[in-house]
Amino acid sequence: MSKVVKFGGSSCADAKQLSKARRILEEDSERRYLVVSAPGKRFPDDIKVTDLFYYLYDAAVRKEDTERILKRISDRYQEIIDGLGIHFDLQKEMDVIRSSLASPEREYLASRGEHLNALIMADWLGWPYVESGENIFIDEEHHFIPEKSYPVLARTLAKLDHAVIPGFYGSDGNGKIRVFTRGGSDITGAIVARAVHASLYENWTDVDGMRSADPGIISDPKPVRTISYQELRELSYMGASVLHEETVFPVRTAGIPINIRNTNHPSDPGTMIVPAYTGSAQFHMVTGIAGKKNMSNIQIDMAMMNAEIGFGAKVLSILARHGVPYEHTPTSIDTMSVLVSTKDLEPVREKVLKELNEQLHPDRVFIEDHIAVVAVVGEGIAKTKGFAAEVFQAVADADINIRMIDVSFSELNIILAVDEENYEKTITAIYEEIEDRL
Q1: Which residues contact residue 420 at a Cβ distance below 8 angstroms, ignoring those fewer than 6 apart?
Q2: What predicted TM-score, i.e. pTM, was given to this entire model?
């Protein structure tokens, strides 16, 4: 059995953090494949190494002096090398990067933070280094190419008992480096886990796993010890700060669990993300509460709307033509509301209103801004009679008017829309009501 271990930027920030990472690796012999990020911030006002490489690219494009930034990057890595007490030829690697500045490529330079960190870790651990650009393939739209990557990566890793793999990047297969757009190293870790058929993908970061609500709203919310992939998707969609879906997909399809852990508190069990709950799994009726602000409601009023076949499809097609994805579409017999992100709607607001009026001839169409949505998520909701009523009553008792209610047949979540000014108050009221169910 093997485990894939990924350490994020905060866990790779300096030699002290990397020493913690090594101790974690050595505690479990099944931790055989390591994915690393570029060094992150050491203190609040610090600059991430990846950002330094972006600055380097910008300076090279503008034909400005790049040596100052190169030295800053070099000093950062030399500090790590000295702190680890190893002899690593950093100058050789920096010379390669310097030579690339004659024709700078943004994605290539952005990837060098992970590349250097993985080389240093491989040297320190005495593990083989596996080049992501030769084993992971990404198209020009930054999408992972699984059918090409998995066979190559699996063959490479099958020959190795241990390996260090840089996160965040791959190549287009023709030698051009490509990077993932978001959560890059997390995605690489999931890809490696899938390729080696890992028993577990451990994602080590600087938090003790997931929390059941936003700590910025709820003081010390309860930790989430176990969550299903489906619950994770719902919470992530609703704005919770959890793993990006592209991270989850490779391991979800293979049924590999993910364990989110804290490098600074390695004894904490963190959060286990599982394909599905089993009889032995720790089960909560409610897993978490999440939400997001800055929503707009497009409301269309029209008598006998229900008799016009395809009315809703026409509304959504108009939004689609203007690149506005919809979130929810609550309706009544003569009214249809479409909840969308204000950010997505704003650039095309007047065009959307104009087309809705011209094509549908409604009695009235208008847009309300400053709407927020709040979701209560949990696979146990469907099994609990009267739970929705408890949630609604808690919000009412807090003197908050619910603008919209959306409960699917699956009853995996309950979604409420409220005026944005009541967003934090709504989350607080619901959390206090259901805290013992979390």
Answers
A1: 293, 294, 295, 370, 371, 372
A2: 0.87
**Nearest by Cα to 111 from 37, 219, 198, 26:** 37
Considering only CA atoms, which of 353, 429, 354, 437 is closest in space to residue 394?
A: 429
Return d(Cα 417, Cα 429) in angstroms, integer: 14
Q: What is the pLDDT of residues 372-395, one digit of tens each?
A: 999 999 888 877 888 889 999 999
The DSSP secondary structure of 159-183, one letter per residue, reads: T-SSEEEE-SEEE-SSS-EEE-SSS
Q: How far apart are CA 30 and CA 267, in angstroms?
A: 17
B/e letters for 55-85, b = 16+ CB within 10 Å, e = fewer, are: bbbebbeeeeebeebbeebbebbeebbeebe
Q: CA 5, CA 21: separation in Å to the nearest integer? A: 10
Question: Residue 41: what are its φ and ψ, rounded to 5°?
Answer: -75, 140
d(CA 351, CA 345): 10
Mean pLDDT value across residues 394-404: 96
H or E element that contains 349: helix 349-360
Token pair belonging to 243: 């793993």
Question: Cα(354)–Cα(352) distance, rounded to whole angstroms?
Answer: 5
Judged against a pLDDT cut of 60, whether residue 127 lies above it is answered with yes
Q: Measuring CA to CA, which residue among 77, 4, 59, 52 is closest to residue 247?
A: 4
10 Å CB burial of residue 398 (0-12, 13-18, 19+) is middle
Q: Answer positive or negative: Cα dihedral of 59, 65, 68, 73.
A: positive
Distance CA 264, CA 12 (A): 12
